[in-house]
From TrEMBL, chain A:
It holds the Pfam family SBP_bac_1. The keyword Transport does not apply. InterPro entries: Bact_solute-bd_prot1, SBP. This is Sugar ABC transporter substrate-binding protein. Residues 1-22 form the signal peptide. PANTHER family: ARABINOSE-BINDING PROTEIN-RELATED, POLYGALACTURONAN_RHAMNOGALACTURONAN-BINDING PROTEIN YTCQ.
Automatic annotation (TrEMBL), chain B:
GO terms for cellular component: plasma membrane. It comes from Planotetraspora thailandica. Residues 1-17 have a biased composition (Basic and acidic residues). Residues 1-22 are annotated as: Disordered. The keyword Cell membrane applies. This is Sugar ABC transporter permease. Residues 95-313 form the ABC transmembrane type-1 domain.
Length: 459, 321
């Protein structure tokens, strides 16, 4: 009996020790022969594939190996970074959303300050509107809530370097469907009203598959990508920003505000059936499959459509057109940095990580990634743009130039409450159109209430 | 061990090992602990630590990244209940939807699974095959099935196609069953019921098979019609099982969010937002805002609700017995 006890005890101890050893082991890549190896996480599969391909080129030039892992979708990426931050398992480099996420991670101590690394020559390589992306400003610190991590950051700290750039509010039209509806497939509508006429023609030709697709399951897409550029052009920059101001004296329920909501709600008859149940990617896929005649996305949508079998030459692109009744008769989009690259605070390979980011944002590296991913880089590719991106994607860049007054800058968040949450107004906009549960006047009143409560929370 | 047992066998107490073990008992004692230790350690780390950490987090603000938390006391709870003009109305709306799910899912589950179990119990042939068929939704349920349901419920999905082909086109939903605010929540409730019926049916079936057949025979001899047997004999005897099914349904309604996340994400226009989804959204869909604490607070409020319901259920069960 005693022998049996000892054997059982031995087995149990071995099990516990084995589990402990297994728990302690693993994680992290063993470095062999002193060769430097970097790890990187991104939330875009398309980028991971492209980056892994160009990593070979980088290795041949520098001897540094890079392994890139895609962690999707966005919420999984955030939770994985949160977990890794607690367990010390962060990679060396992160690709993160620019314009907020990078600053938040940096101010929270996850990303290193690159201010000393990114000199003027490096900045000059980037598109002008993306050069200061990833840099903490005094205004962001001042506007932040008193318990925000921003308060512990210093103005001028740089937590990321712009990697990809682009704009939201780009309309994609199926040329075949335009032709079938008797429309010119090469001429984009100049005004919002012409756009509605085009939608009327395509839905008239094909009720089921002639409409507009948009991933309204993520309710803020309609609000962000269509309504805001439309309202900006309708009212002009100052009046547009006043819609969101504290006190709502000139808010959404004002006559001007209601007119913009009324213009937006005219889309109601033309939405693709079931568009409220589609996510962003699903709506793009529906368009690529011919289930809609128009699709709204960003400059980054072109690559995704191509991936899903929609040839770029079959697509007509144009930004959300301005209303003929509005202030601005033309519309242009300021290219904003969509994603940025940051070096994690736990890396043991800071120099190699900075070198990797430096290379990725050089014309050579950015060009190589752009060619593989068909995504616009934050690096100015100059004359190489067309050869690297192809004529259709490069053509999108023409909407990046315009007068400062008519240019819609989605990166400008200075006029929002600091705890601004897009989901609430997004849900309301879905109730305005396509659900038609509220009238433009009611939507305006509700939006003012939502903004008012956000300002109250900010206080 | 009951006090009666102790009285009847007082000698057993004398035979209990003393609390101070002699060295010759150590191997057995150590063996026991060596086997139990991994499970205890696992529970200490995965259970006690996370529960304690989660509770502490509900009194703090944190975005998941900063090394320190900002303590706010009970403010997160107050914000959810009334203090925050954005969160409080959101909670009330999601709470209303959750309540609908909490009431409808258990009721419909019982209403469908009990007759189904009685019917299955009354047949001899094909019972095993039919039981397997009815159990299929439980075996196949999960994220993949929710995606499959989405395709079925699309504007051009199988249900609309079927309705139109049967000449019932007026019942078809041009925006899909999940795209219409009037049908989205009821549709999700029906899918939840579809997922819950198999287990409930099996529970009822096992309960029915445990009932003494003499009771049915006696009732029939007394001239009871089948509906009277169901109402006067079967239903009272199956009440504990019904209570368990209702409790499971209520618990799922309180905590479940996967179906709402996958199928509607709370839409269209927030019409299917529920408390579980709200907690998930506060934790992971708020960018990097410091809402993990308020999300945790909501989780603890749901926990408190679940405990209250469990106590109520236990009380009901005692009364039934």
């Amino acid at each position: 009996m005693r022998a049996a006890h000892r054997r059982a005890l031995g087995a149990a101890v071995a099990l516990v020790v084995g589990m402990a050893v297994a728990g302690c082991g693993g994680g992290g890549e063993q470095q062999q022969g002193g060769a430097q190896t970097l790890t990187m996480w991104t939330f875009k599969k398309l980028h991971a594939d492209a980056l892994n391909k160009v990593a070979a080129q980088f290795k041949s030039e520098t001897g540094i190996s890079v392994t890139v892992e895609a962690v999707t979708p966005d919420d999984v990426f955030v939770s994985k970074v949160q977990s890794a931050a607690q367990t010390g398992g962060l990679p060396d480099v992160l690709e993160v959303h620019a314009g907020g996420e990078d600053l938040e991670m940096g101010a929270s101590g996850l990303l290193q300050d690159l201010q000393g690394d990114v000199n003027d020559a490096w900045k000059q390589r980037l598109l002008p509107t993306t050069r200061e992306s990833g840099v903490m400003t005094q205004q962001r610190i001042d506007d932040a809530a008193s318990d925000s991590p921003f308060k512990s950051a210093k103005a001028g700290q740089r937590f990321s370097v712009g990697f990809t750039a682009g704009a939201f509010g780009i309309v994609y039209a199926n040329k075949d469907k335009l032709k079938a509806a008797g429309l010119d497939p090469d001429t984009p509508p100049k005004t919002w009203e012409e756009f509605l006429d085009a939608l009327k023609a395509t839905t008239g030709k094909d009720t089921k598959e002639g409409g507009l697709s948009l991933g309204l399951k993520v309710s803020q897409t309609g609000y962000n990508w269509i309504y805001q550029p439309l309202a900006h052009a309708y009212l002009g920059k100052d009046r547009f920003q006043a819609l969101f101001a504290k006190g709502a004296a000139q808010g959404f329920a004002s006559p001007d505000g209601v007119r913009t909501l009324e213009a937006f709600s005219r889309l109601t008859p033309y939405w693709m059936p079931g568009t409220t149940t589609l996510g962003i990617d699903e709506a793009d896929i529906a368009f690529a499959q011919g289930k809609s005649a128009f699709d709204v996305g960003g400059t980054f949508t072109m690559a995704f459509l191509g991936q899903n079998g929609m040839s770029p030459d079959k697509v007509l692109t144009f930004p959300i057109p301005p209303s003929a009744e509005g202030v601005n008769k033309e519309i242009s989009m300021a290219p904003l940095a969509l994603t940025g690259l940051g070096v994690t605070s736990t890396t043991d390979n800071r120099a190699a990580a900075v070198k990797w980011i430096d290379w990725l944002t050089s014309p050579e590296g950015a060009g190589a990634v752009a060619k593989e991913s068909l995504d616009l880089p934050a690096t100015d590719l100059g004359t190489q743009a067309e050869s690297l991106l192809g004529p259709d994607l490069a053509a999108l860049q023409k909407y990046f130039t315009g007068s400062p007054d008519s240019m819609y800058d989605a990166a400008d968040v200075s006029f929002f409450p600091s705890d601004y949450d897009q989901v609430k107004p997004g849900d309301l906009m879905v109730r305005l159109t396509p659900l038609q549960e509220v009238s433009p006047q009611q939507a305006g009143t509700e939006l003012d209430k939502i903004m008012g409560s956000m300002w109250k929370v900010t206080e | 061990m009951s006090s009666l047992a102790v009285k009847d066998h007082p000698g057993r107490l004398d035979k209990r090992p003393s609390r101070t073990r002699s060295p010759r008992h150590w191997p057995g004692w150590l063996t026991g602990w060596a086997f139990v230790l991994p499970a205890v350690a696992l529970f200490a780390v995965m259970g006690v630590y996370t529960i304690g950490s989660g509770l502490a987090l509900s009194f703090a603000k944190w975005n998941g990244f900063t090394p320190t938390w900002t303590w706010v006391g009970v403010q997160n709870y107050l914000d959810l209940l009334y203090a925050d003009p954005v969160l409080a109305p959101e909670l009330r709306r999601a709470g209303g939807h959750t309540l609908q799910v909490m009431i409808a899912v258990p009721l419909l589950t019982v209403a469908i699974s009990l007759p189904l179990a009685v019917a299955l119990n009354s047949i001899r042939r094909l019972r095993a095959i039919l039981r397997s068929i009815y159990f299929l939704p439980y075996v196949t349920t999960g994220i993949a099935v929710y995606f499959a349901w989405r395709y079925v419920l699309e504007p051009d999905g199988a249900i609309n196609t079927l309705l139109r082909s049967l000449g019932l086109g007026t019942l078809a939903q041009p925006q899909g069953f999940l795209g219409n605010p009037d049908t989205a929540l009821p549709t999700l409730i029906l899918i939840l019921v579809w997922s819950a019926v198999p287990v409930a049916t099996l529970l009822y079936l096992s309960g029915l098979q445990a009932i003494d057949p003499n009771l049915f025979e006696a009732a029939q001899i007394d001239g009871a019609a089948p509906r009277h047997v169901l109402r006067r004999v079967i239903w009272p005897l199956l009440r504990p099982i019904t209570a368990a099914i209702v409790l499971l349904g209520v618990r799922d309604a309180l905590h479940g969010f996967q179906i709402f996340l996958v199928m509607t994400r709370g839409g269209p226009g927030g019409h299917t937002d529920v408390l579980g989804l709200m907690a998930y959204r506060l934790a992971f869909f708020k960018g990097l805002a410091q809402t993990l604490g308020v999300s945790s607070a909501l989780g603890w409020m749901l926990f408190a609700g679940a405990v209250l319901l469990a106590l109520l259920n236990a009380r009901m069960l005692r009364r039934v017995r």
